[in-house]
Amino acid sequence: MKILVTGGLGYIGSHTAIELINKGFNVTIIDSLVNSNIKVLDNIENITGKRVEFHKIDLRSKDELYSIFQKNIFSGVVHFAALKSVSESVNNPKLYYDNNVGSTENLLDIISSRKEKINLIFSSSCTVYGQAKKLPINESSPVLNQESPYGETKKICEEIIQNQTIKSENLNAISLRYFNPIGAHESSLIGELPNGIPDNLVPYITQTAIGKRKELTIFGNDYPTRDGTCIRDYIHIKDLAEAHVAAIEYLLKIKKQNFYDFFNVGTGKGLTVLELVKMFEKINNIKLNYRIGDRRNGDIISAYANTKKVNKTIGWHAKNEISNALKTAWKWELKLHSLDDN
Ligand code: NAD
Ligand code: UDP
Questions:
Q1: Which parts of the chain are beta strand (E)?
Q2: Out of 144, 196, 228, 246, which could bridge 130 as a Cys pair, Cβ 3.0 to 4.6 Å?
Q3: What spacing in Å lies between the alpha carbon of 232 and ligand 2's midpoint?
Q4: pLDDT bracket for residue 304 (50, 70, 90)
Q5: What is the pLDDT of residue 147?
Q6: Could you give the CA distance from residue 311 to residue 307 in angstroms, rounded to a whole number?
Q7: 303 C-alpha to center of ligand 2: Å?
Q8: Contact assessment for residue 107 and residue 65, using Cβ atoms and an 8 Å cutoff
Q9: Quick one: which of 55, 83, 82 has its CA closest to 69?
Q10: Nearest listed ligand to the Cα of residue 301
């Protein structure tokens, strides 16, 4: 069974491609390489023993995308391709609407022109909930007006995908609202590759530990939480990748038409920034250089998932320890450092 993975050389896409291949799916990857490296393709092969079909295409180029659908019958599409920096989206909103929404529109137009039934999984984010009033956050929590153009593109893409499933006879779809993915593949062959100074906490921690950054600044310790730092639901990248396989398998079994649903993907447990930092220090036996700084603009105080819906409906559960994710993240940083030295 053929599955198209857009953005499949990126962080979550490459881990998901591996889990799909391990489950026997025939994976084709499209990626523009705007935020990934072609070497990831070799490493997917090194891990799985399978050479994946790859096309360097920008999803905004409709003709090129269309030609891939003409040459293949895909049962599923996992749509990761997007730009993901919140700060960049604030500085350049047009780029984010054009890339993230434009790509999704092209994909949907092409799917609607096809005869075969296609199951689509879309990468959404818990960012759509903003600061939820009730914790843990369940799927009935309202989707708020977004503070950043990035968040807005996730909200818009969810809406246009849902609308398309209502109109078209050949599309069923699921949006997965990820909480905070961290960690790397256990082989240390693939992992997160942040461009420049990382926005996200775990790459910032590992880059500080390796000496690439002088110190980690913890953004505020005066929030109304158990130690004053913000709370997030960190999820092991392997668990997140497996959630996509479970979601595709679920859609493949569904007999209904015009099916659309959305699910939280997290562990259900919130950790504070300080708890995560201390866990990193303990599991890797490292002393991290960090200081408490000012709050970061627009930060959500606390977000963690109620995962009952995805657990019950799709049968997916997070299984891997966060401490193990922090171990793999550190091994991955060490590997990147050893490659830098050569
Ligand atoms: P990533 O940047 O590592 O991967 C995205 C991939 O898409 C990259 O390889 C990039 O080159 C490619 N891409 C971007 N625009 C493209 C285009 N127009 N055409 C073809 N390829 C294109 O990011 P990631 O962390 O793997 O995120 C994957 C998806 O998950 C994104 O949609 C992101 O918004 C979403 N998401 C990520 C997180 C997170 O914390 N990493 C959280 C919630 C949602
Ligand atoms: N954070 C921090 N220092 C950093 C990066 C992040 O203290 O250098 C905090 C941030 O304020 C938030 C948490 O770590 O409370 C997770 O941040 P990240 O950007 O990884 O995820 P998001 O805020 O998008 O959920």
A1: 2-6, 26-31, 53-56, 76-79, 118-125, 171-178, 180-182, 216-219, 231-232, 234-236, 260-265, 271-272, 290-293, 302-303
A2: 144
A3: 8
A4: very high
A5: 87
A6: 6
A7: 12
A8: yes
A9: 55
A10: 2
The pLDDT mean for the chain works out to 97
Closest ligand 1 atom, CA of 14? Answer: 26
Q: Which numbered atom of ligand 2 lies nearest the CA of 126?
A: 25
Confirm or reject: Cβ of 151 under 6 Å from ligand 1: no
The pLDDT score that the predictor gives to residue 173 is: 98
| Ligand 2 atom, smallest distance to 202 CA | 20
Q: Which of 175, 81, 39 is nearest to 119 (CA)?
A: 175
Determine the distance separating the centroid of ligand 2 and the alpha carbon of 260, expressed in angstroms.
Answer: 31
Decide if pLDDT at 340 tops 90.
no
pLDDT, position 339: 87
Question: Which residues pair with residue 188 across a beta bridge?
Answer: none
Q: pLDDT tens digit string along 9-42?
A: 999 999 999 999 999 999 999 999 999 999 999 9
